């Protein structure tokens, strides 16, 4: 069964009703459970769980330290292009917004990379709008060839691709792919995405499956908090995560929590997600899944990010710019959305250390991967020799 087939067996309103009907007894049962289910996750994100937030936070802290230690991995996005063929009512890059469009050249990319390397970054997220005629697989492959040796870890957040195309980028050195469904409410998805390839709900829904089949090391999921009921949307995201982990069990996974931010020409949030609700959601994910990476970006305020470090997150962006060339090439170009936490990366690293955690710039080394590859080759060669001897 594909996730699309699983998804088609569900009903948004029934799931929503189930979440909102959870009681304190359901929450207590979920908190006492040794291995939590999707039904437990419903209880943990329900209104009934709000009085249990402190208890949830303490367990989330303990589970995170057990699995990840007291570490926070730092990364930064590098926007390659704001060209986009989609109309998305919540995005500053939307096709109908009359903004100056720009796609970085090789020389401009290297300037941005040099700036980020000077600040210590070894994990980078490449981001573009969705414009297949400009930012396509040949462009992404050229960028990878250009910067692959500069970073230990390269992720992408671009338009959904076919399985074979993900395979090409995997071979080129892409470590992880972030693809957010934005909302799992299929009936209103089209209203938020009236034009462009992104309006195809099912193609986007199938994207993590294509990533898994292509052997991508890590897949990042998420919803855009503010489009629809956050509890119901988050359940479907958890359902998606659960399916993927069981189907592509060798792949790692991450969840991000983007809340809608102001941007040129976008709609106001349909639903306001408060800080306490976001903390509840982060803790619920950690209690549901000890292994998933949880990421909080610079969309969030300084105050929120100052206090969220011990609550279950494992990854944070820092010093981010959301416009192509925003670091040095063209700082004044239009942003995809406004950053809330504008502190420099050095200050974020100091905040992490002052919180008793270690800021991780690089958690694995290319030379180790190369050495592992040589070891595997030797093992295969030995197997051949032994087989031939027999």
Topology of helices and strands:
Elements: H1 3-7, H2 12-20, H3 24-32, H4 38-45, H5 53-68, E1 71-81, H6 106-118, E2 123-128, H7 137-147, E3 153-157, H8 163-172, E4 176-178, H9 186-192, H10 201-205, H11 207-213, E5 218-222, H12 230-247, E6 252-256, H13 275-288, E7 293-296, H14 302-308, E8 315-317, H15 345-354, E9 358-360, H16 366-389
Parallel strand pairs: 1-2, 1-8, 1-9, 2-3, 3-4, 4-5, 5-6, 6-7, 7-8
Brief overview:
The chain is α/β, with parallel strands linked by helices and 390 residues long. It is built from 16 helices and nine strands. The chain has a single domain (54-386), classed as TIM Barrel.
